[in-house]
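Question (not urgent): is this output format expected?
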Amino acid sequence: MKDIKFKIFASALASVLLVGCNDLDTEPLGAVVTSDQKEEVVKNDPEMVSASVTGITAMFSVYGNAIPTSFGHDDFGYGSIMLNLDSRGTDMVGLDINYNWFTRSMTFEDLFFNYRPTNILWRTMYNQIYTANGVVSTIDPATEDSSLKYYLAQALSIRAFDYFVLAQMYQHTYKGNESKPCVPLITNENANEAAANGCARSTVQEVYDQIMSDLNKAVSLLEATDKTRGTDKRYISKEVAYGLRARVNLTMQNWTAAAEDAQKAISGSGAPYSREEAGAPGFTESSDHSWMWAIIIAETDRVVTSGIVNFPSHMGSLDYGYASVGSWRMINKKLYNEIPDTDVRKGWWLDANKHSDNLNEAQVAQATKYGCPAYTQMKYGPYKGVMAQSTNASDIPLMRVEEMYFIEAEAVAASQNVAAGVQLLNDFMKRYRQPDYNCVLTDLRAVQLEVLKQMRIEFWGEGIAFPTAKRLKPGVIQNYEGTNYIEDIFKINCEGVKPNWALVIPKDEVDSNIALQGKNNPDPSGSIPTRPTPIGTYAPGNN
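Got this back:
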C-alpha cells in the first residue's frame, strides 16, 4: 500500500483532511482500490454507498467519539451539543454540582480553548463533515441514478447542517459579520491542500455560501429522485432539506425565501402536536407526527448500555440518570412566569409548588420521590413511559414541524407586512398551544422578540432557540428578584449577548494547524462581568 505522509490536524479535523487524499484502500482479498475505482464500484452498485450514509446518521449519537481518550459523560453526540447550547443560553437553569456535566457552559468556564464544550462541538461536527465528504467524493455529481441522487443529498444536507452549527458558534450571527473569520471550510475539493499546508478560517460569507450551495443541490436532488426515506427519520427528506434551508435563509435575512421554504416544509410534513398531545410528558418517539428529523436510538446502542451517558439521563426528570440524582434541568423562572396558565406548555415544568397539570398520579409520585425542585422540566417523558429505568433509549428530535410555523411567521412579518406575520403566529398559538392567545403587536422588532419567546418555550432543551436568541440579541436576565439561578456564578445580566456566545477554537486544533495560529477568536475572559450582576444593571455583552 502506498505510504502517504502529510501533516494532519490534531483534532477531528484531521479525519476530514484524509478524505480528499489519493490514498489506497485495501479490499478483503488484499487488492487495492483507488478513489476513481471506488466511484466506479458505486456507479455499478449504488446501494454500496448506503452504509456510509447510515454511518453519518449514526455519528449523531456515539458515546466518546469526540474525545475518545476521556469518555466523559458529556460526550454522546449531538444530544450533548443540544444541552451545551441551551445551557449556554438564558433559559436552562442548573446547579453547580459535580453531577452537572454542563456547568461550564453556564458559568463561562468554556471560554478557554482547552475546555471540553468547545472540543466536543468542534470534533463532533468535523467528524460528521469528514464522513459526509467521503460520500460526496464517491458519487458523481452529475449522476442520473435515483439512489445515488438520494445518497448524495443526504451527505450534502448533513454537511450543510454541520457547518451551519459551527458558523453560529464560532462567530456571531451572519448579518453584519459577513467578512469576519468563521471556521476552516474543508470539502473533498480542497482536502489535499489543507493536509499539506493547513487550512485558514474562511469568512462567514464563504461558509454560508457553501452551506447554501450544499442545500440548494440537496433540494434539487431530492426533488429529482423517486427514492424516499419512508418512515425512517434518521434520513433527510425533501421537507427536512427545505426546513434546513429555511433556518439558514432566516439567519441571512432572506425573508421571502425563508417563508417559502418554511411553507414547503410544512405542506409535506405532519401536523404539530395537538394541545392534548402536548399536555403530557413525551418527546421520546421519532414516529410522532410532528417530528421531521430525528436521532433514532436503539436499546443496544452504546449510549444506552452505558446507562447514564445519554440525553435522557441528563434531561429526563422521570428517568434514572444524572437528573434523578440532583442534576436537574429547570426553566428560568422569569420565562416560566411569562407563560399564561392557559398555555398547555406551562405544564412542561413544575410550578413554584412543584405541581404540573400535565402529570398523572404515578408521575407526580415519581417526581416527589426523586425530590424534583420547583421549575424542573417535565417535558421529556421516560422511554416507553416506564419511569425510573436505566434503559434510556428515547429518540431525540432534530427538527419538528412547529419550528417551521415560527420561521414562517417571522419571515412573513419581515418580508410582507407585520400584520400578516402576526396572523400566522396567532393562528398557530390559538390552535395548538393557547386558545386565548392574541398577539396585537405592530412593530417588527417586537414581533420578532415575541416569536423568539414562543420558540424559547416550545424548543426548550432542543438546542433550537439559542441560535435565534444569538441572532436577535434580546439581552440576558438571570439575576432578578426571586431568581431561581441559585449560585451567584450564574447570575448574569448582559446587554446584547453573553461574552461566551462566540467560542474559541480548541487549543489542539490551533497548535496543529499553522494557518490558525494567531487567528483564533479573542479570549473574552476579560469581559466576563462580576457575578452576581447587580439587579437592575447590565454588564456589556458581546455583539
